């Protein structure tokens, strides 16, 4: 059974989650994410527990229990001067940190150094910390897709989703293209795969973000799709955080805000008869399966 039918929709339905990554990264990210959730077409987000502005995002989750918010499982800290550490003390998860005690700054280093016991301990701590702050997560996903970089990492990701009863962001084509392996040998029918995953890449930024998002929505196919974005305001805080990074920087994130809070975006959703769905709905429907 394909995902749309499994979720109670017809096979021809265009189901879409418009998902904001990195909630909790910074105040700018938080303000833009909240605005996009409340006034735009964004209908889902996930929270970075190790980051400095996590408490504000957690407070929002607690105050807005109907919001579709998950945990953005975080094992990398990629910016030049704005860095974060694991939730656990570094000596408890030594393979996850660099010589300064920060999480590794790339998925490549994570893949080279991280051990499975350290990954599992830290991610459990992130989920539990989120719950302690009042988050009732609707799903789990992975910052920079670090948890699908290797099949061994994927097994931890799958284990956590199963134990906490939460759906996971998983797309076979994306993992095959970026990590080079097929996830099918590692999963069971318990897990629901996203048919199509869309996230702007540097070439899309160079060609024009509005054009990329417009074409993505206008050409959306039947099935379950996810569009990932990273909303933040192009202000001094975000400019300082993303300095020396030409992509996924402050102006990129402002484009994400502008498009997904625009009347043009809403019009395309209506014209294309796109049905928005949340991870909460997916979680609740999967939980009723026998």
Describe the structure.
The protein has 290 residues and is an alpha/beta fold. It has one domain: Glycoside hydrolase/deacetylase (TIM Barrel), CATH 3.20.20.370. Helices cover 42% and strands 12% of the residues. The chain has helices at residues 3-6, 27-39, 54-63, 107-113, 116-132, 151-164, 172-178, 202-207, 209-218, 236-241, 250-260, 263-271, 279-287, and strands at 14-23, 44-47, 69-73, 140-142, 196-199, 223-229, 274-276. Strands 1, 2, 3, 4, 5, 6 and 7 form a seven-stranded parallel β-sheet that branches. Helix 5 runs parallel beside helix 6 (151-164). The protein is globular and about 55 Å long. The two termini are 15 Å apart. The model has no long low-confidence stretch (mean pLDDT 97). Pfam families: YdjC. GO terms for molecular function: deacetylase activity; hydrolase activity; metal ion binding. Its cofactor is Mg(2+). Keywords: Carbohydrate metabolism, Hydrolase, Magnesium, Metal-binding. It comes from Spirosoma validum.
């Amino acid at each position: 059974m394909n995902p749309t039918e499994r979720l109670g929709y017809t096979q021809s339905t265009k189901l879409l989650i418009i998902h904001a990554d990195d909630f909790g990264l910074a105040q700018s990210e938080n303000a833009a994410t909240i605005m996009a959730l409340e006034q735009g077409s964004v209908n889902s987000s996930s929270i970075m527990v190790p980051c400095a502005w996590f408490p504000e995002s957690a407070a929002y989750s607690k105050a807005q229990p109907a919001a579709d918010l998950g945990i953005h499982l975080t094992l990398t800290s990629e910016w030049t001067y704005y860095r974060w550490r694991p939730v656990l003390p570094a000596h408890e998860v030594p393979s996850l940190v660099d010589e300064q005690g920060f999480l590794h700054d790339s998925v490549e280093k994570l893949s080279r150094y991280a051990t499975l016991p350290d990954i599992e301990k830290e991610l459990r701590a992130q989920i539990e910390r989120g719950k302690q702050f009042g988050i009732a997560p609707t799903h789990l996903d992975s910052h920079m897709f670090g948890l699908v970089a290797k099949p061994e990492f994927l097994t931890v990701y799958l284990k956590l989703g199963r134990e906490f009863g939460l759906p996971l962001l998983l797309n076979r084509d994306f993992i095959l293209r970026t990590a080079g392996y097929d996830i099918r040998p590692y999963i069971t029918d318990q897990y629901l795969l996203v048919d199509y995953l869309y996230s702007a890449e540097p070439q899309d930024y160079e060609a024009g973000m509005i054009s990329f998002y417009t074409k993505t929505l206008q050409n959306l196919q039947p099935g379950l799709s996810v569009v990932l974005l990273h909303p933040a305001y192009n202000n001094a805080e975000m400019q300082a955080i993303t300095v020396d990074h030409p992509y996924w920087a402050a102006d990129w994130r402002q484009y994400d805000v502008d498009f997904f809070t625009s009347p043009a975006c809403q019009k395309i959703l209506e014209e294309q008869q796109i049905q928005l769905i949340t991870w909460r709905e997916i979680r609740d429907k999967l939980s009723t399966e026998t």
